[in-house]
Amino acid sequence: MEKEIIKFDVLSRADSEKRFLRSRPIETSNTRDENGEPIIEGYFAVFNSNYELWDGASESIAPGAFDNTISGDIRALINHDSTLVLGRTIAGTLELRTDSHGLWGRIRINPKDTDAMNLHARVERGDVTQCSFGFFIISEETDYRADGSVHWTLTEVELFEVSCCTFPAYEETSINARAKDYANIKDRETDAWRAKMFSRINSEGGNDNGSKDVDAPKED
Asked: Which of 38, 48, 135, 187, by CA, is between 20 and 30 Å from 155?
């Protein structure tokens, strides 16, 4: 039995206003550049790596998902705090690019910024090991699997920040929003199925009682 994959564009940012955050251990490769200047460098996201949202629901990022966004105005923050800016793409203090592995970034730390230098020291010591990236979903593929689980593959996102985090803050809120969206999608699918069945009954005629027996879609 072939698995069902549904492709669709998510509501625009203006319609949904839903920001999503995903956290993971940062794969730090360097904390000093070739001149000894302080940097934070590594992968903020990895392609084709399953991220478990809750039991039976997972998500991954497809290669190319960041292609239309990394040239935009993106900030690097401390713990998602917009008053604690580590770097910014348009200022040349945050560099982002993608390769076959994922989203790579380099933050050039300002030696005159006490907060930035304190964070850098914590990353260098291994006290801070988490990173997050914040995004809007532009398009995705949904895979409803035979075992009842669901998997989303993000095919295009709009990135607005990357953060170095002590804890994966705010993540539970965005996952709850994802779960609510999933429930709404399932409700819409059930409504669409019912409308389709009523239309088929009206066009084909019902049984002796004026109705036709059909199987409803399974509900989780």
From this structure: 187
Rounded Cα distance between 141 and 147, Å, is 18
Contacts of 1 (CB under 8 A, 6+ apart): 146
Domain boundaries defined on the chain:
4-170
Supply the pTM of this predicted model.
0.71
Residue 160 and residue 134 in contact, taking contact as beta carbons nearer than 8 Å: yes
Per-residue H/E/C for 202-217: HHHCCCCCCCCCCCCC
